[in-house]
Design brief:
homodimer; alpha/beta; Rossmann fold; seven-stranded mixed beta sheet; six-stranded parallel beta sheet; globular; TPP_enz (chains A, B); Thiamin_PyroP_enz_TPP-bd_dom (chains A, B)
Amino acid sequence: MNGAESVVRTLVDSGVDVCFGNPGTSEMHFVSALDRVGGLRAVLGLFEGVVTGAADGYARMAGKPAATLLHLGPGLGNGLANLHNARKAGTPIVNIIGDHATTHQRFDAPLTSNVAAFAHTVSHWVASTRSARTAAADTARAVQAARMPPGQVASLILPADAAWSPAERSAPPLPRVGAVTVPDTAIGHALAALRSGESAALLLRGDVLRGDSLITAGRIAASTGARLLCDTFAPRIERGAGRPSIERMPYRAEQALAFLSGTRHLILVGAQAPVAFFAYPDQPSELTPTGCEPLVLSHPHEDGPAALWALADALRVSTAAARNAHRPPDLPLDGPLDTEAVMRVVGHLLPEYAIISDESISAGFAHYPLLETAAPHDYLQLTGGSIGDGMPVATGAAIACPDRKVVTLQGDGSAMYTLQALWTQARERLDVTTVIYANRSYRVLLEELAGVKAGDAGATARTMLDLHDPCLDWVKLAEGMGVEAVRVDTRQAFTSAFRTAMARRGPMLIEALV
Amino acid sequence: MNGAESVVRTLVDSGVDVCFGNPGTSEMHFVSALDRVGGLRAVLGLFEGVVTGAADGYARMAGKPAATLLHLGPGLGNGLANLHNARKAGTPIVNIIGDHATTHQRFDAPLTSNVAAFAHTVSHWVASTRSARTAAADTARAVQAARMPPGQVASLILPADAAWSPAERSAPPLPRVGAVTVPDTAIGHALAALRSGESAALLLRGDVLRGDSLITAGRIAASTGARLLCDTFAPRIERGAGRPSIERMPYRAEQALAFLSGTRHLILVGAQAPVAFFAYPDQPSELTPTGCEPLVLSHPHEDGPAALWALADALRVSTAAARNAHRPPDLPLDGPLDTEAVMRVVGHLLPEYAIISDESISAGFAHYPLLETAAPHDYLQLTGGSIGDGMPVATGAAIACPDRKVVTLQGDGSAMYTLQALWTQARERLDVTTVIYANRSYRVLLEELAGVKAGDAGATARTMLDLHDPCLDWVKLAEGMGVEAVRVDTRQAFTSAFRTAMARRGPMLIEALV
């Protein structure tokens, strides 16, 4: 057994069974070990942003980490943006990053870099294996670190000689560190707020937005009149029929302040107190209005579900949660396509237990409520603002949940960052339908230019925000990577295309001119 | 004048007149300033790897830095791989990286990260502006740092409030720090080696591979019998008719050792002593064979051209340099296309003073000599091993040299990393012909798998190195970004397509099935 084999064996024994990768020479022993060890499904991405984004999407749905396999500092560099998103989502990921052999590192060969420095930018945990004999133990620690609540980015640097040299054995899985119990005092404070008779809201993030916890939150809301809120960008929410309705924090600072206006107690369950996405001249960064007091029920690493349960118990909640009816939005009348019509069609035709990966950016803000009464589904969002996660996250989610339809709602500007994800969807025959909102601009930036009071956009400024010259042809781009595609510009044509996509399996792309 | 305007004004006054960018909200004041200040050409890339690679290609040809405009840590993250290549090339680049307003940074908003930590991975110089009043001075220092010999990556972090707040004035350009004079002792040692009667070679890198310096090196070689060598991957070489012939170090360690075998004195002119690209089990990292002594004539930051001149003077060289004749390779007979035939056609039809950006990886090693006697041209290579620089470097070179034909020789696996470069080529109407070597695999890795003795490739390992399922359609990918394209699989068809491309202006892509 060599070091690489001991690493793969340890990953598998620790419950990691998928590895998204884009390897190079220093990872060849790891690649070769995959066949000899078995149990680790290898999924190739043609760019590392696809690899890391897919690992994020996989873990959000599977509830456990995937591994990534990356090639030295620059290969990791290409994956940093989506690891940033994963870090902000609290997603567990185990990065295995190949490096030069330890004996080779001092020579400043072309690919030599400070791999650990790259890793520290986005990782909660970084280690560099120094010998084949410690590689397996380091791997077990990396998996343990990744699974620390709520989920961490763990990066293990594996020098080539630690992969190719002899190892004694693999390492057994390490105990899983559980979420910390929320202290009674925190529950007491939340209880007092909810019993005060003053207006209250629960801002939920993490696993309390799913399953029994979500229903418990709904029961508390129904019983106390408290509002249920989620962040503007949440990692994963169970939405649609049968689930309690969750209000989404608005993106714009002034809207967020108005949204919370009149709320006296803001109870944070796995969430931070809300802050503006960007700063703007003469606008506050903190979005809790005067008179609204944030109160931590549970920090992200604490056991939010148990705290919610204890809270409901203490409140003696007997009320059932208000659950959304199954009343999908009506199909739009025919006419030119727009973003609202797209969301209506998606909401109307969405099959049960679909997964939506939403990176529609500007298009998505207004139409979020339309999916409230659609069929039950999971809703995944861009958590770190680093664009280019929509299609990779969908790719990973489809690997995690092969029996569920995945729908990507994707802005065209962001889509260009990681369009290589479509190739992996084709190779793995993933059941993903991608809707490209082709507005042919960085639309959100046109709005932001006004928001930051940067003055009118001159001719040069406009060229930096406009994608019309030339127009991207998403049908050709998708077909170029083996994904069937169609372009539509009317509501009827979009309805027909989306209906077709929902009725079949496998990857498909719809370029929606909006 | 606000901080952003003072930065743009200072860049222009310091001689920076092109900015490759992909801005976000925090850069909107910079974008808006472009129209009010004038003099800085803004070129949009749809992914930051295109932006930074284009800045590298621009500066290699223009001999001065471009600016880049990048969006916080993740935006910079996407550009790190090609900044790594630029760092290894000794390319001057000025990165302007927007960050949250200073007042906003403590709130851990979704896009908050340690921007400086991202920057330090690839930069020689990093600074973070803390106020609009210092932004211009910091910018002048960044340009000065970038121009430090042989060229550095300088990263200036510009918080949004430093961009939007009032500034007093721009800053005047700072003095340019020149290359250090090589001490006489170093020239003396090289002189002794060349006069010893023992075999000697000059390993050249940097500006000594161009212009009068290259001719001087050729005269020294002709007079003393010394060999002229370059690294396996050199930033820029003037090649072809009228230039001295330069032997390229082989990629593989055992071949490199054989290549230098019998050479007693290896005189380094702006180059490092050769090292293996990767380590391999039981192979040395240092590639100077026993009995071959490396000797530094000039370090990269020293004045290599003057040292070469002094050396020629001391040697009383009267011999003319041996210059390549203009004797392009013959066109191949018709038949199935292969990599040698591609290079023959390129060499036969290449127009005078073309620029070749070569990221053909495995295809390029064997056929390098074929361009020796082609028309005079500049030859740019992947310097840091971080794949995905071929098309971006070509893009930047075409911006720097609008009157010269640019030809990209591009492996298909690498091309997928930064294919968005084609869109910028279309938007800017750049005169770039891209040849995709479509072998539909990471061919070099199939060879490396054997090289590192990782055992036979099993089924899983092969799927990680193979790009056949599905095959990429480069004609559709190019057309999807507005670039005309054609696919060929015979020598005659390639000849015809390449001839057409050389006879017209504007971007074109040829997918060569090899």
